[in-house]
């Protein structure tokens, strides 16, 4: 039976996992599909990547690792991604997954010169496409939860930028009809976002930001969740 494969690329902070769950739990909840339709593949902990033909769809999750670290498990996913895309299997990369998908297809990932982007941010759709299965009909601007210090500095040649903001020029992109990357976190809710900010106070200070101000601006972000729900419906 073909399944939606969630590619796990790392774990959240232990304190967050204990209270709120981990990346794969939040993604599964956001997809709004039956548990029997989903398989989690924990590549950093030794799970083998599945044969492409048994994937109904793929979600590559976020991570505390950095794409530029070129870890062996990350390079393995990177080499696997083109086959998924060329097979027209729907794939969604989130944060780390977004960057890895871009790198796998010829894009450039590097540390962001501005440091870390964290909290609830405003996102602007720059490429409105009524045929886009995930983004069509969404508001021109919406809020999303963000947490990253690396960026897709250059998109793959065949990618279309869908969304940006003043910090991040490539917050979302698409390759072909069914491969998407989103730098923001559609699977986060306000509780998860606040917990992340609190656990990353040192990094926030290093970037010259103030934790209290970030926490004070965190608010619900329902529009990105629609993107995840739409992906679930697309591949269910």
Can you offer a commentary on this structure?
This protein is an alpha/beta fold. It has one domain (3-235): Rossmann fold (3-Layer(aba) Sandwich), CATH 3.40.50.880. Helices cover 33% and strands 26% of the residues. It is built from eight helices and eleven strands. Strand 3, helix 3 and strand 4 (91-94) form a beta-alpha-beta unit. Helix 3 packs across helix 4. It is globular. The model has no long low-confidence stretch (mean pLDDT 97).
Could you give a short description of this structure?
33% of the residues lie in helices and 26% in strands.
CATH class: Alpha Beta
Could you tell me the number of beta strands?
11
* Corresponding CATH architecture: 3-Layer(aba) Sandwich
Number of domains: 1
Could you give the order of strands across the largest sheet?
2-1-3-4-11-10-9-6-7
Q: What is the chain-wise order of helices and strands? A: EHHEEHEHEEEEEEEHHHH
What is the global morphology?
globular
Percentage of residues assigned to helices: 25-40%
């Amino acid at each position: 039976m073909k399944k939606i494969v969630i590619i796990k690329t790392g774990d959240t902070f232990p304190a967050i996992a204990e209270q709120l769950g981990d990346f794969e739990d939040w993604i599964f909840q956001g997809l709004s599909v039956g548990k029997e339709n989903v398989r989690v593949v924990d590549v950093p902990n030794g799970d083998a990547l599945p044969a492409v033909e048994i994937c109904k769809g793929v979600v590559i999750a976020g991570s505390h690792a950095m794409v530029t670290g070129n870890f062996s498990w990350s390079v393995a996913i990177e080499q696997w991604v083109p086959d998924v895309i060329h097979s027209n299997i729907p794939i969604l990369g989130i944060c780390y997954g977004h960057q890895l998908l871009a790198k796998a297809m010829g894009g450039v990932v590097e540390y962001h010169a501005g440091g870390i982007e964290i909290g609830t941010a405003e996102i602007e759709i720059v490429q409105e496409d009524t045929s886009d299965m995930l983004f069509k009909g969404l508001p021109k601007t919406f809020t999303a939860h963000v947490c990253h210090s690396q960026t897709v500095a250059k998109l793959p040649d065949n990618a279309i930028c869908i969304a940006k903001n003043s910090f991040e020029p490539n917050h979302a992109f698409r390759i072909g009809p069914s491969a998407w990357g989103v730098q923001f976190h559609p699977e986060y809710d306000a509780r998860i976002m606040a917990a992340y900010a609190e656990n990353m106070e040192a990094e926030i200070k290093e970037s010259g930001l103030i934790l209290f101000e970030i926490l004070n601006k965190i608010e619900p972000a329902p529009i990105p969740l629609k993107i995840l729900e739409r992906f679930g419906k697309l591949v269910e």
